[in-house]
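Anyone opening a protein record will find just a pair of labelled lines. A complete record is shown below as an example:
=====
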Amino acid sequence: MDIELFNFLRKLIETEDGLILYALALIVIMEIVDFASGTFAAIVNPDVEYKSRIGINGLIRKVLGIFMLLLLIPMSVLLPEKTGFMFLYSIYIGYLVFTFQSLIENYQKVKGNILLFKPILKAFEHLTKEKSNDDKEDNHGS
């Protein structure tokens, strides 16, 4: 049984289409875990305000994000050669990275030890600060 599952996964990622669907499945699984861990963190941690409105807004954002990622699949076919695949895959990897960051933040909210993830979080912060500084320079230069 286990070998059949691994063979299925190997066959799935042999093609570009399969790789995109695999990445999308990872995103959906991580989003479900992210929503559950965020809800758990809000319930357990007294410093985090637990409101149904915030949870519903988060769930709507996640569903819309997945819908937009699905919408990009047929649009990527319009780009020439392998450009569409690379564009789609880079968007999916970025989405996975930010979902992973959200999972780490939820773990921190339940007073988990994130010492192992500190270098990763610092790299994320550095990238986002660098991007926001570039955007500010572009706006002032216009």
User: Anything to note?
Assistant: The chain has a mean pLDDT of 81.
